[in-house]
Write a structure and sequence with these properties.
The protein is of the alpha+beta class and about 140 residues long. About 35% of the residues lie in helices and about 30% in strands. The chain has one domain. It has 3 helices and 8 strands, in the order ββββαββαββα. The longest helix is centred in the C-terminal third of the chain and has 20 residues. The protein is globular and about 45 Å long.
């Protein structure tokens, strides 16, 4: 991730691509009680910002896709982070800290979907199917 002239490392455990375009990232932690960095959510959002910057550089200064998803797995809990990027936000990072706000949403808003619960597993599988459909629907022809 780049902010002004500084480069920062961001790490994710997996990334999903359609062609050369990054469309989602996954981060996992086996340390269920670790509360650093808001349960990995800040690291996941920073990885999504870095992925958007990478796409912006590769695709002739276009924000593609504008909406990116992150999957956070912590122990047996899964949550989804949705980030909506604007060109103003990404461009402002190249000059320093942005003044614009980044739209970030988490589902579920508190905690995560527990893989140890049958109902939650069904919901996780449904969400993964929807994310797959979304990723496949992204137009990468630009």
């Amino acid at each position: 991730m780049r902010i002004a002239d500084e480069m920062f490392s961001t790490f994710s455990d997996r990334e999903g691509r359609k062609g050369e375009q990054l469309v989602w990232v996954l981060q996992e932690s086996k340390h269920k009680r670790d509360i650093r960095y808001r349960n990995g959510e800040i690291q996941l959002v920073s990885a999504l910002i870095a992925a958007c910057q990478q796409n912006y550089s590769i695709f002739s200064n276009n924000i593609l896709p504008e909406v990116m998803y992150g999957i956070n797995v912590k122990g047996d809990e899964v949550s989804i982070i949705r980030v909506v990027f604007t060109e103003e936000y990404i461009v402002s990072l190249f000059g320093g800290l942005p003044e614009q706000k980044l739209e970030v949403k988490k589902y579920p808003s508190i905690g995560g979907l527990r893989l140890s619960s049958f109902e939650s597993r069904v919901e996780v599988l449904s969400l993964m199917t929807k994310l797959r459909r979304h990723a496949l629907s992204i137009d990468t022809s630009t």
